[in-house]
Amino acid sequence: MAELSYRDAVSRGIAQEMRRDPNLVFLGEDVAAAGGVFKTTVGLLDEFGPIRVRDTPISEQAILGAAAGAAMTGVPVIAEIMFSDFLAVCFDLVANEIAKLRYMTDGQVSLPIVIRTANGAGSRFGAQHSQSVENWCMMIPGLKVVAPSTPEDVIGLMAASVRDPDPVVFFEHKSLMATKATIPDGEIVDELGKARTLRAGTDITIVALALMVPRAMAAADRLAEQGISAEVIDLRTLVPLDTRTILHSVERTGRLATVEENPRLCGWGAEIASLVAHEAFWNLDAPIVRITTPHIPLPAANNLEDATIPSVDKIVDTIVSEWA
Amino acid sequence: MSELDLAGRVELLERMWLIRAFEEKVSELFARGQVVGLIHLGIGSEGSAVGVCSALRSDDYVFGNHRSHAHAIAKGADVDRLMAEIAGKASGYCKGKGGSMHIAAPEVGFVTATGVVGGNVALALGAALTSVTTQDNRVSVAFFGDGAGQSGSLHESLNLAALWKLPVVFVCENNGYAEFSPLSAHTVVERLTDYASVYSIPTVTVDGGDVMEVRRAAVSAVARARAGEGPMFIEVLTHRLRGHYEGDPAAYRELSEREEWTVRDPVARFRAELEGAGVAADTIAATEAAARSRIASAAESAVAAPGPDPEEATTDVYAV
Lengths: 324, 320
Prior knowledge:
- By secondary structure, chain A is of the alpha/beta class.
- Helix content of chain A is 38%, strand content 21%.
- Chain A is built from twelve helices and 14 strands.
- In chain A, the strands form three sheets. Chain A has a seven-stranded mixed sheet with strand order 3-2-4-5-7-6-12, with helices on both faces. Chain A has a five-stranded mixed sheet with strand order 9-11-10-13-14, sandwiched between helices.
- In chain A, α1 (6-20) runs parallel beside α7 (151-163), α3 (60-72) runs parallel beside α4 (91-98) and α8 (212-225) packs across α12.
- The termini of chain A are far apart.
- In chain B, the strands form two sheets. In chain B, strands 2-1-3-4-8-7 form a six-stranded parallel sheet, with helices on both faces.
- By secondary structure, chain B is of the alpha/beta class.
- The N and C termini of chain B lie far apart (48 Å).
- At the A-B interface, α3, α4 and α5 of A face α5 and α6 of B.
């Protein structure tokens, strides 16, 4: 057992998999010598050397193209896109190539790739370095989407993503980097498509992801003080989506709130609201509540960013105000 | 791998005829509504496809673009499965799920084609990265057109290939037109090789009407890449004897230009060259006849073949 930060869990997770598969290669901007802009990849160059751990130029299309071509020819790759906002720079590779090549070729090729990327707000970086864009990837057929909220999940879900034969986009939250937890020694391997119920409750199901998970947990404490028993589910992966855990919970609580950092229109909560409205309609006692970032580009100023991203207060206030 | 004897050159002609016959047949099937989707033909670029691929080992990698039937055949793809793919049939390489712009025959080293201009170039870097990582000594080739020259993906790929000394051969088939407009409407750069030179990648410009000239350039580029000396950029001056896609009357082209290229047609030229070198007229005629017969049979099978089972629409789906 050791205490480990979310940041250090990233490098431990990558190292665990690079030790296991001697062909696994890791690419990205300033990931090798500098250890990553968020220091998530410190030590990997020293352990695995410059053939397997490579610094690239600021060329996102070349990074993902190289990842795709290598994966298709037998070398699995972890590729870092430094900020998730930059997925937009190389979206042809993400949406048209990596997501579709196995299907288009009728399975003649497969693409074992993990695209790791720093997601989310909280650092006052403004509209081009703070977005939560997991919903961009969720809507593309052919991508799995993972967003861990704890150090242990970083390692376990990284292992599951690397061992998956198909492409996974792995969102690491910038504002969770410093969070710490005690985690077991040895290999940690988890499973994609399994949500985790972090807190049992009877009155409402709160579904959250990444940074919104600790906020949903804090909100549940506050709701309990007001006599509302909230069940909190950490989705962990958006694709595959653990619909069973969500539906079973709503069947018992009769209410659903989603807490999303992505902007409102076509955020992942809309998909879950649709699912629950269809599959658990007769179990619902109240309208579904979506708590999201408003549909705006993100501002940089402290007070503006704080007012924009769902906070514990906002989660509590929204749920209480809609309680009927 | 350097110079070919006469029999070897006749084999190249056979391969060029196979491509010409294939593409002409696809054009016919398109006119009859028997192939699916957008069809971009490589008639006129046989010298480039065959010249380059004849310099490769069977386990080397080729990445094609939207106009890649010729590249796949040159790399050894089976014409029955290729025709069936373009016709959207179950017996196609991709069971009809790819279509003309997304063909793939990785078993012969034609890893894949992509329909996004410039989108395939970066993929070749990755196959080269595999070669460097596993030290399997293979070479990767990316075929693209002059239209991809102005794409960011190409420039990122040239830079990274040079930086990492990757075993990649960039083959730019410069047919003078990007979609419907001449190269001069796309860039003020007159020689596309300048794009590679700026990244310190050696370049050569060859006449795509001369398959042996293309081959010599490719042999040298491939040897260089295999020896670990890094990428090379070959500009092949070629021509589309058809429009951008089938159905495009190509009215933007000067008649004189078409006439000039009919004379420079790589297939006709190579045939004449082999006749001049002493290959019997009957042997030459037989190469064309054999190719046309082979392709007629491929087309007949493709047209007659059943479409994919409806359930194929949801196979190779893993992220739901």
